[in-house]
Amino acid sequence: MSCEHKFVHLRNDSYWRTMGRYSREFVSIDYYFCEKCLEEKSVRKSHRCEDHELSDIPDWAKIINNKIAGYD
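The structure assignment produced for this chain is given below.
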């Protein structure tokens, strides 16, 4: 029997890290589950930029303040 999925947002993990001397990567992962069959899925977004491009990053990346170890 096939499920007509109804996905519900479960949580979001987001972070940024340095990728080089003057570059950063912003990552956001949204996790969802189907409330009917409990199947899980995730949607990953990432954006890399140079430090001088920080004013032009996407809105979803502007709210990320969790820094993880990277190139440092």
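Interim note for the steering committee: The mean pLDDT is 92. The first strand starts at residue 7 and ends at 18.
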